[in-house]
Amino acid sequence: QVQLVESGGGLVQAGGSLTLSCTASGSTSSINVMAWYRQAPGKQRELVAVSTPDGATNYVDSVKGRFTISRGGAKNTVYLQMNSLKPADTAVYFCYAVSLGRNYWGQGTQVTVSS
């Protein structure tokens, strides 16, 4: 079992920055992929950024060049640095991890970008 806890959400003006953090606990040694998803009101949850064990990263087109995903040294932490935030980035952001073929989700953290 893996537990994920996010932090770092909040209210920011357009053009501002936020950094989200997600720390995994439990059986963390088997975690491979970690990612961030988001879900805006009335919309489906979408993949924002993903980090694989070999260091590869990938981003949804709408955040490329503005967001950066990174893993902590112990590999049980994942960050999402968000720059040049836009009102369209407003959503609940969820941490996601895969371990031994099972999917795990955090509880979500709200990010609100005001215009």
Question: Which series of helices and strands comes N to C?
Answer: EEEEEEEEEEE
What is the approximate shape? globular
Tell me about the largest β-sheet.
7 strands, mixed
As a percent range, the share of strand residues is over 45%
**Relative helix content:** under 10%
What does this entry look like structurally?
There is one protein chain. The chain is mainly β and 115 residues long. It is 0% helix and 58% strand. The protein has strands at 2-7, 10-13, 18-26, 31-39, 46-51, 57-59, 67-71, 77-82, 91-99, 102-105, 109-114. Strands 2, 4, 5, 6, 9, 10 and 11 form a seven-stranded mixed sheet that branches. The protein is globular. The termini are far apart. The mean pLDDT is 95.
List the helices and strands and how they pair.
Layout lengths: L1 E6 L2 E4 L4 E9 L4 E9 L6 E6 L5 E3 L7 E5 L5 E6 L8 E9 L2 E4 L3 E6 L1
Briefly summarize what is shown.
The chain is built from no helices and eleven strands.
Task: Please tag this protein with its features.
115 residues, 0% helix, mainly beta, 11 strands
